[in-house]
Structures
1.
Amino acid sequence: MTPPGSSTATALSDADLAALRSPAPNPAAVDATERQTPVTLFFLYLFIVVPFLALLLAIPMAWGGFMGPVDVGLLVFFYSLTALGITIGFHRHFTHGSFKANRPLRIALAVAGSYAIEGPLDRWVADHRKHHAYSDKLGDPHSPWRYGDSLPALAKGLFYAHMGWLFDVEQTPRAKYVPDLLADRDLARISRAFPGFVLGSVLIPGVIGGLLTWSWAGFLTGLFWGSLVRIALVHHVTWSINSICHVMGERPFKSRDRSGNVWWLAIPSFGESWHNLHHADPTCARHGVEKGQIDISARLIRWFERAGWATDVRWPKADRLTARRIP
Ligand SMILES: [Zn+2]
Ligand SMILES: [Zn+2]
């Protein structure tokens, strides 16, 4: 989407808040194909609750000896693969066009992001483009400020921004926000194949664990660490960008919202938590632009560029950064 200008940061206005609190708009006015069905809501609950329960069991499981080197390898590998699919693929490439990718890389990024189980590519990108279009204002699908500025309102808003918004029956209209993805036949096919990616994401780590250890125990612990715990970690780290990074962190750059740079999430989020810079200059391929700000996704984009797979990378430019910096 178009980069925000240099207007001053404000949260929801009183009018915005009033509109948010008012009853939902007339359902007849909403495109029926853009509403969640009870079936998708059921699977949404399933794929949020079960991995989260696994996360709660992770420490006792590790303590009890149910975590071998193969499990650690599966956890690290599938965490990195799927989270980078989101950060480099769904986010920096497909949502913001911060670099061009050749066809094999484009497909690989779409597939890797789909394995993160955060919804189909077209839906993820539509929601995120809308987030930038309305950040922390009425229309933002997941602003932590939607209920107001008081502490109880913010606690409620943080939960909503983190995961509550996923259960909204109304969905961002794709025809309006992602016509480019719908027009690309390969990408449209990948979006439609999402249930298959979900199945693969859950089963493949277990199968690899079973084959490498040649045991059913290896299959089960591979499933636990490589699938369930990994899915929960990727989910909650990604969602923290929507919740935590819109409430706390430093704001050295001008943005229209309350996005902040949260240093302690930089490594697990692969650079996405330098979120204030990202809202100030959304098409920039590097979010951690200051010295010492680790941005693993940007490092990989650099490698893709060197390999000739990524071109037209929008690296940070000194004059753009200066124009956006709060004096
Ligand atoms: Zn944001
Ligand atoms: Zn973004």
2.
Amino acid sequence: MKAARTDAIRKDWDTYFMDIAYMVSTRSRCPRRHVGAVLVQGKKLLGTAYNGAPMGAPDCLEAGCMITEEAEWRNVDGQEQMIKKQRCIRTIHAEQNLLLFTDRADREGSIVYVTDQPCWTCANMLANSGVTEIVYDRVYLKDSDKVHDLMEQKGIRFRRLDPYSPPPQTEMEIMP
Ligand SMILES: [Zn+2]
Ligand SMILES: [Zn+2]
């Protein structure tokens, strides 16, 4: 039956917008991480963004990643251990670029779909942006607890899209 077959391949809205976020992420030129984010209000796509250097400034492929090392405390088998982590700080995060390139009015009551669970800084900014729901795919453990607490305090719906698989060839391997 033709109608049934069309229904079976028709994407639900969550998958549809997350797929777009992954497509957007392929524009990123930071070899460490490709992140895409989209702004959706009432099923309308109102903005797209990915992580990248400021416009006109050299990007990670031209000038190399700008690496900083950060110490992070983590509980490993009941013991607090300090783990050193490298991060690229050349890029503006996808979520922050999304806020820079969208209007406040477009964000009120809107949903952000983002390929990766937001870091603390992005979550903090999103919490003040008018957005009322954040949907992500890949988990980012570093700031997870405090980000979840903040979202709860702000009454922002915060959820992982699961089950979900990104469209083919949109996912890069993430460096540790
Ligand atoms: Zn980089
Ligand atoms: Zn971030």
